[in-house]
Design brief:
Elements (H helix, E strand, L loop, with lengths): L1 H20 L3 H33 L1 H33 L1
Helix pairs in contact: 2-3
Length: 92
């Protein structure tokens, strides 16, 4: 289970770092409040979905789907970063 949750922990650490470095001091508390509320709601929906899908499909396919979604998201980020880097280099 540790291996499944580890990418989420890394993603969360990076996301919170971005929030802190790219938000004004006056809005940072509001931003973190909204993020925390959305995160709690997403965790509730995810737990309910995992329970229902785990009963119907089994827990291994559900965890495999979560891992596949992490891989797809990581690939998308790499693609976007590469595209952005090429655009910046072309402008320079």
């Amino acid at each position: 289970m540790l291996v499944v949750g580890l990418p989420g922990a890394f993603m969360l650490a990076g996301l919170l770092t971005l929030f802190q470095t790219h938000s004004d001091d006056a809005y940072r508390g509001r931003l973190f409040g909204v993020f925390s509320a959305l995160e709690a709601g997403a965790m509730l929906v995810g737990a309910l979905a995992a329970g229902v899908l785990g009963d119907q499909l089994g827990i291994v396919p559900v965890i495999a789907a979560q891992g596949a979604q992490y891989c797809l998201a990581g690939g998308l980020v790499l693609l976007l970063l590469t595209t952005q880097r090429k655009l910046v280099e072309a402008e320079a």
